[in-house]
Design a protein that fits this description.
By secondary structure, the protein is mainly α. It contains 16 helices and five strands. The strands form two sheets. Strands 1-3-2 form a three-stranded antiparallel β-sheet. A two-stranded antiparallel sheet has the order 4-5.
């Protein structure tokens, strides 16, 4: 009887193992990992185009910045992002929509957004300059016997053609300062709670997804020459030395953004759609996929470029951190209004605390070395801006709503950083000799829209998270026997 009972238990365990194995989506791990840590062997030392090095950034981010920025973006002001996900692709007809459930997002009403009324409705209710000349705004002058209405008549009519031209002038003026499209005033935009729509692997891939980045690299990045590898759209690192500083910065910023997004997908990968047990997450098991990480970055899989792409992540991190430092005095004076006084004060304190740490970084990116040289530099700066504006519009061609959400947010965050670094309204000649920080001429002249502030901090948080995740992947390669335990303990 005892032996039969033992056999029955063994049989039950065997059945459980078989079911568990069949419930695991093996197709998600079809790529075998490289048996090396070659991704990290070259990830040390100087970054190039700046005086900083990788190891300094690793320590500064993982110890000082990462915990602060992750706590900050969890606050109500930074959780809600206004975005229009219904825009048509302006460059090509593409109906390749991702049908997987992981591509969908949850939107929320504007009334549920903390601080909506203060940030938006009050602006909409402000009197337009032309309203003061409207008929109902005029006081009666008929009581004045010396007044002749026909002599003081002011013709306020504008033809449709004139209104169209003025709208073009306004758009042109805005384009001189902005580096990307902004959905802040878009009537078709919705609010998204970022905490309910985390960035992770969605299954969006294939020709539609590849076309996005191919268009970005081949049509909107500066290129010294045609790439000899037809199926490899990236600029080879050996060719970067043949490009001027401005063009290198552009490519490395875009490449760093792409690298960061890839790391997010590898670190929050769908490991299994279903899991036995009552405590299993309803939307599947998510965690780091080392094989996928190595497929995307190992030198043997990327014509030797993988480690350089990882370095570009650190480069764009420096660039966005410099923008936060430059705009620091302005950002410290923002209200960050949500309607909850204690929450707002906590947010302002957290902003000041993190900016205080950023100010202490010893090797900030130096944007003043760029776009110097008269008319030629001005022309290059305009091309720089136009190319990045196109990239922000390409994000409307993404066929997965969740990918589009995070693509638009991170592109807009980088575009806001470029606006702070390179638009004239943020230039300041006078500096505070005690703090070495840029002074503010007038807050109204430099006001960022709420979506720009939200995207700027969230984009920097994503870069910070990517650098932190690199440490996790490095440890998985260092201690492969702990990989299974790490994957099983990671939940999203």
């Amino acid at each position: 009887m005892e032996s039969k009972k033992g056999s029955f238990i063994v049989f039950i365990v065997f059945i459980f193992v078989i079911v568990e194995a069949n419930g695991f989506d093996t197709e998600l791990f079809e790529t075998s990992a490289c048996d090396s840590n070659a991704c990290f062997e070259a990830l040390h030392g100087a970054l190039g185009d700046c005086s900083c090095n990788v190891d300094t950034i690793d320590y500064f981010n993982n110890v000082k910045i990462f915990p602060r920025i992750q706590s900050l973006v969890s606050k109500d002001y930074f959780r809600f992002f206004k975005v229009n996900l219904k825009k048509e692709c302006p460059f090509w007809a593409d109906d390749s929509r991702c049908a997987m459930k992981y591509c969908h997002i949850k939107t929320c009403s504007q009334e549920s957004v903390p601080g909506y009324k203060n940030d938006y409705e009050d602006e909409e209710e402000e009197e337009k300059p032309a309203a003061k000349y409207a008929e109902n705004a005029q006081s009666s002058c008929n009581s004045d016997s010396d007044h002749d209405p026909t002599l003081g008549y002011l013709n306020m009519t504008l033809s449709a053609a004139s209104q169209y031209e003025i709208a073009k002038w306004k758009a042109y003026d805005a384009s001189l300062e902005n580096f990307c499209e902004n959905d802040d005033k878009d009537a078709d935009a919705d609010y998204v709670d970022l905490s309910l729509n985390p960035e992770r692997y969605t299954g969006y891939k294939g020709p539609s997804a590849h076309r996005i980045w191919r268009s970005i690299y081949q049509e909107n990045c500066f290129r010294p020459r045609t790439n000899p590898y037809e199926s490899f759209p990236y600029v080879l690192s050996s060719d970067l030395s043949n490009m001027c500083l401005e063009k290198r910065v552009f490519y490395r910023a875009v490449s760093g953004l792409h690298t960061s997004i890839n790391i997010h997908l590898c670190s929050k990968y769908l490991l299994s759609e279903k899991k036995l047990g009552f405590v299993a997450a309803p939307d599947g098991e998510w965690g780091p996929n080392l094989a996928e990480f190595q497929r995307r970055f190992d030198p043997s899989q990327t014509l030797g470029e993988g480690p350089n792409w990882l370095k570009n992540l650190y480069f764009v991190y420096l660039l966005e951190m410099r923008a936060l430092a430059k705009a620091g005095p302005y950002l410290e004076r923002e209200d960050y209004f949500t309607g909850d006084p204690s929450e707002d004060e906590e947010t302002r304190d957290a902003i000041r605390n993190m900016l205080g740490v950023i100010y202490t970084f010893p090797d900030h990116f130096n944007e003043s070395s760029m776009f110097n040289g008269g008319i030629q530099a001005t022309t290059l700066k305009n091309e720089f801006r136009e190319h990045f504006w196109n990239i922000s519009r390409i994000m409307d061609c993404v066929g997965c709503d969740k990918c589009k959400l995070w693509g638009k947010l991170q592109t807009q965050g980088l575009g806001t950083a470029l606006k702070i670094l390179f638009s004239s309204q943020w230039d300041q000649e006078a500096k505070d000799p005690d703090q070495g920080k840029l002074l503010l001429r007038h807050k109204a002249n430099k006001r960022l829209q709420r979506t720009e502030i939200v995207s700027l901090f969230n984009a920097f948080a994503r870069l910070s998270n990517s650098i932190r995740e690199l440490e996790n992947f490095r440890n998985m390669l260092r201690y492969p026997e702990e990989e299974i335990h790490y994957v099983m303990c990671t939940k999203v």
